[in-house]
Every structure is written in C-alpha cells, then in structure tokens.
C-alpha cells in the first residue's frame, strides 16, 4: 500500500494501475515503456493541466459535440488507467467505444472489451479483420465497419503517429491525448491535449457537460479559434521556459 502522505502518491497510484493492467491481461508489456515516457513529460510539464491543455480540451469538447459519428478508440493503457471515465465520456458525448490496439492480440482485445463492460459500458466494438483503414500497415489498421471506419471524429488517446496520420488521410478528424508535444501523433492530430490522460478525461467530461448549453455556431467558433501548432509550441515553451 502507498501511504497518502507520500510525495509521489498520485504518480505511484497511476503506476499501480498500469501494473494492474498487465496482470489483468489488458495492457501490453510495451505499455510500461510508453507510460514511463509519459511520466517523464508529465514531470517536465509540472504534473498539472496547463492553460494550453485546457484550450485543447475546450476545442476537443466542441468538436466531439459537433461530430455526427464520433468514436472513442481504446488501447491497453487507456483501459487500465481510466476505464470508468472513458465509459462516462462515451455516454456524455455520446460516442461509440471501439477497442484498437497496436500490439496484436485477440485475447487482449476481448479482455479490454470485458473490462470496459465491467466498468459500465453497454456496448463495445471490436475491430473486424475484413475491414481496414487505408494508408496503414500495423494492427491498428483493422477497424469496425460501424465504428472507426464510418467515424467523422476519432478520439484516440495515447496513439501512435502512423495511425493518427492515416486517420487524417482517411478524412477523419483526430483528437488525441499525448504528454509528448514532440511526438508524431501530437503533430499529426487535429487536436492534441498535452496532458496526463488521468487528469484530461475527467476535465473533458466536465467541459462537454458545460458546452452542451452552447449553440452550434458558438461551438464552431471555438474550433476555428483553435490552433494545434500554436498549442504545441506553448507546451514546448512550458518544458523549456
Ligand atoms: O495497447 P496497445 O497494444 O495499443 O499499446 C498501447 C501503447 C501506448 C503501448 C502503444 O500505443 C505505444 O507504443 O504508444 P507510443 O508510441 O509509445 O506512444 C504513447 C504516447 O503516449 C507517448 O508519446 C507517451 O508520451 C504518451 N503517454 C504515455 N502515458 C501517458 C501519455 N500521454 C498522456 N497520459 C499518459 N498517462
């Protein structure tokens, strides 16, 4: 047990979630490495939701509310870190949930689906082997014909750059959460939330609830005002003040 008074309590609790994900067969072993990289950037960004991330969250909330067919793509790290929150997000928008993983494993896809259902999801889509998104070679190319394949906006936290780029080439808008403002995902996505998924998803839910009272033109204005490149520069400036 980690004592609450430990100065690194939040970080150690989050590590426990990832380790638990591995034990449950939800998270890939490579997820540990990805998490370590995320932690390093979180440390440099002050382990808080900075103003630039809040702007991205606002734009993401507006884009998700305006989407006609929004889909949330869930991998092994997301399922371990924020299972309840990601289900709540899907209900709040509302958006479909679809499992999509980089390191191929049918067993893990099913475990992630079961885990989301245990955490309140009513329906979770799985990728279909017959259906692929174009311009992509990895396992992430497989998509569900009722989910990512048809989606206009895809929310893909902790993504790899190849798929973010491929989804954009397929005409989709991509929203990601990535603590690394230098990653290809961050640069290729339509909206990048440079924050820890643990903090960003609850704030995104809260923002969507608030923005539900806005009309369409106000939401469009929020998106038009948003500049992802400017946001990434602000995140980098935050790391190298
Ligand atoms: O379950 P799978 O097979 O799909 O695998 C998932 C991982 C995350 C292992 C896979 O997609 C992967 O290898 O991702 P990458 O290319 O390492 O990218 C993950 C990105 O997420 C990196 O840029 C990290 O900095 C970032 N990251 C890691 N943990 C967090 C994070 N961003 C926000 N919050 C975090 N907690």
Radius of gyration: 17 Å
Biggest sheet statistics: 5 strands, parallel
**What is the total domain count?**
1
- Write down the overall mean pLDDT: 95
The first-to-last residue Cα distance is 36 Å
Low-pLDDT residue intervals, each spanning 5 or more residues? none
Q: Helical region count? A: 11
Q: Please estimate the helix content.
A: 40-55%
Q: Work out the number of β strands.
A: 7
What binds here, in terms of ligands, is: ligand PTJ
Strands of the biggest beta sheet: in what spatial order?
A: 2-1-5-6-7
Task: State the CATH architecture.
Answer: 3-Layer(aba) Sandwich
Find the CATH superfamily: Phosphopantoate/pantothenate synthetase
- CA-based shape: globular
Brief write-up:
The protein has one domain: Rossmann fold (3-Layer(aba) Sandwich), CATH 3.40.50.
Keywords:
globular, Rossmann fold, 241 residues, alpha/beta, binds ligand PTJ, five-stranded parallel beta sheet
Question: Can you describe what's shown?
Answer:
There is one protein chain. The protein has 241 residues and is of the alpha/beta class. The chain has a single domain (51-239), classed as Phosphopantoate/pantothenate synthetase (Rossmann fold). The chain has eleven helices and seven strands. The strands form two sheets. Strands 2-1-5-6-7 form a five-stranded parallel beta sheet, sandwiched between helices. The chain has a two-stranded antiparallel sheet with strand order 3-4. It is globular, with a radius of gyration of 17 Å. Bound molecules: ligand PTJ. Ligand PTJ binds next to helix 2, helix 4 and helix 9.
């Amino acid at each position: 047990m980690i004592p609450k008074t430990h100065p690194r309590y939040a970080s150690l609790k989050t590590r426990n979630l990832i380790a638990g994900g591995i034990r449950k067969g939800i998270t890939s072993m490579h997820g540990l490495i990805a998490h370590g990289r995320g932690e390093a950037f979180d440390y440099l960004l002050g382990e808080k939701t900075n103003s630039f991330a809040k702007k991205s969250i606002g734009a993401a909330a507006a884009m998700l509310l305006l989407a006609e067919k929004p889909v949330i793509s869930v991998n092994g790290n997301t399922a371990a870190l924020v299972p309840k929150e990601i289900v709540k997000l899907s209900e709040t928008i509302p958006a479909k949930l679809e499992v999509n993983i980089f390191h191929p494993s049918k067993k893990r896809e099913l475990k992630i689906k079961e885990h989301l259902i245990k955490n309140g999801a009513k329906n979770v889509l799985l990728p279909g082997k017959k259906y692929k998104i174009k311009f992509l070679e990895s396992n992430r190319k497989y998509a569900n014909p009722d989910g990512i394949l048809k989606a206009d906006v895809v929310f893909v936290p902790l993504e790899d750059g190849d798929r973010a780029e491929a989804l954009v080439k397929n005409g989709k808008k991509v929203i990601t959460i990535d603590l690394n403002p230098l990653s290809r995902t961050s640069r290729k996505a339509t909206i990048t939330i440079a924050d820890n998924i643990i903090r960003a998803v609850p704030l995104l839910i809260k923002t969507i609830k608030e923005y539900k009272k806005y009309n369409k033109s106000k939401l469009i204005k929020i998106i038009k005002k948003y500049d992802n490149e400017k946001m990434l520069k602000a995140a980098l400036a935050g790391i190298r003040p």
